[in-house]
């Protein structure tokens, strides 16, 4: 792992190419995370649909609560994907300025 240090710290700075490569790796990891999150959201939706279909007409309070929890997973994933997207965009901007 390359670390950047301030000039005069007695430690060599990473080259621009090394920094760009490290940023590109970070972007790649974040993109992989987005894919994994998308799969998690799809699986949670599938679980919710299955639960809804087998508990249709149930008056048990925990059925509604559980369905709401699966929906919260989907919503939470969407929020996380927004953060990742912003992070990727920011990293790409940093890389383009190097």
Summarize it.
By secondary structure, the protein is mainly α. The chain has helices at residues 16-55, 61-97.
What key phrases describe this protein's structure?
2 helices; mainly alpha; 79% helix; 98 residues; rod-shaped
Provide structural commentary.
- The chain has 2 helices and no strands.
- The chain is mainly alpha-helical and 98 residues long.
- It has helices at 16-55, 61-97.
- It has a domain at 38-54 and 61-98.
* Derived structural class: mainly alpha
Indicate the radius of gyration in whole angstroms.
21 Å
Order of helices and strands: HH
Number of strands: 0
Helix content: over 70%
Determine the mean pLDDT: 88
Tell me the β content. under 5%
Q: Which regions have little confidence, pLDDT < 50, spanning 5+ residues?
A: none
Report the biggest beta sheet as strand number plus sense, adding barrel if it closes: none
- Work out the helix count: 2
| End-to-end CA span | 18 Å
Shape: rod-shaped
């Amino acid at each position: 792992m390359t670390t950047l240090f301030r000039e005069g710290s007695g430690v060599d700075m990473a080259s621009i190419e090394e920094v760009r490569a490290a940023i590109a790796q970070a972007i790649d990891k974040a993109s992989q995370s987005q894919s994994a999150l998308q799969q998690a959201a799809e699986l949670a939706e599938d679980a919710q649909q299955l639960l809804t279909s087998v508990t249709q007409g149930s008056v048990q309070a925990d059925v509604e609560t559980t369905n709401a929890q699966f929906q919260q997973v989907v919503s939470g994933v969407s929020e996380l994907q927004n953060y990742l997207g912003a992070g990727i965009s920011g990293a790409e901007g940093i890389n383009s300025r190097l």
